[in-house]
Amino acid sequence: MKQAARKDFVEAFARGLEVIKAFDEMHPVLGISEVAERANLARPTAHRFLLTLEELGYVRSTPAGYMLTPKIVDLGMAYVSSNNIFKLAQPHMKNLARELDQTCSLTQLDGSDVVYVARITVPKIIRLAVSVGGRLPAFGTAMGDVLLAELTDEKIEEVVRTPSLSTFIPTQHHTRDQLFEQINFTRQNGYSISDERLTYGIRAVAVPVRTNDGKVHSSLGIATHSDSATVEQLQNQFLPRLLETAASISKDWEHFASIPNVDIASLANTVPASYPLQLRQ
Questions:
Q1: φ and ψ at 118, to 5 degrees?
Q2: 128 secondary structure, DSSP code
Q3: CB proximity list for 59: less than 8 A, separation 6 or greater
Q4: Most exposed of 102, 111, 142, 201 (fewest Cβ within 10 Å)?
Q5: What is the CATH T-level fold of the domain 3-68, as seen in this structure?
Q6: In angstroms, what CA-CA distances link 27 with 11, 24, 63, 105, 107?
Q7: Segment 238-277, tens digit of pLDDT
Q8: What's the CATH fold of domain 76-267?
């Protein structure tokens, strides 16, 4: 670290971040001594940081130890708002939601949960109501299947053992073999459909959104009431449009990522007429 930067370095803040980082998918619940060891802190210091984080609502104490709360997602929302791919995705998602008259969502994997990072809703009452920053267990969801399918089997086994931070309780539970069967289907076909697997009355279809290096960045999906869309409709009507939308988002990301220092938000009204209509709206 440069000397000038070192002078203004706030060590207490850095230590607080180390306490948060002590928790991960393999260590969701930690005692004070464990936090101290993983954050390389004295036990009394670690305890003070945990009490502060608990007072702020970012951790909670349980009989087994401390664990992060969903509020910790708030700290990552700056990433969501500053990540240009979400700004690029929004107009495409709005068009898709309007065309299909269905709510459209974008999620990313965090531990054993999918976290909603963008969402375009339509005025419908749906039993599974979530908002940006909300969590659902990855297993049993179409969007979770898409994100898990990119992991190695070994990594998926780790995720299976990771406790969910979501407060949602699935109405159905699946065996390990059933989980891998669905993930393998997604790997082979490039999409996933959930036919009331997470909760009764909800069907969903999801596809991957890739960045310009070909890696899966997020999962794009649509969820609907089971009485308003059959599995065949999901496959024949929704899936083709989802794939087209995901491809459009990826294509736009590839283009704008090649432009140095571009501000996606500032391009909302300046995109050339040669670009798709949704980017000029």
A1: -155, 145
A2: S
A3: 50, 53, 66, 67, 68, 69, 72
A4: 201
A5: Arc Repressor Mutant, subunit A (1.10.10)
A6: 24, 5, 15, 29, 23
A7: 999 999 999 998 888 777 766 665 555 454 444 433 344 3
A8: Beta-Lactamase (3.30.450)
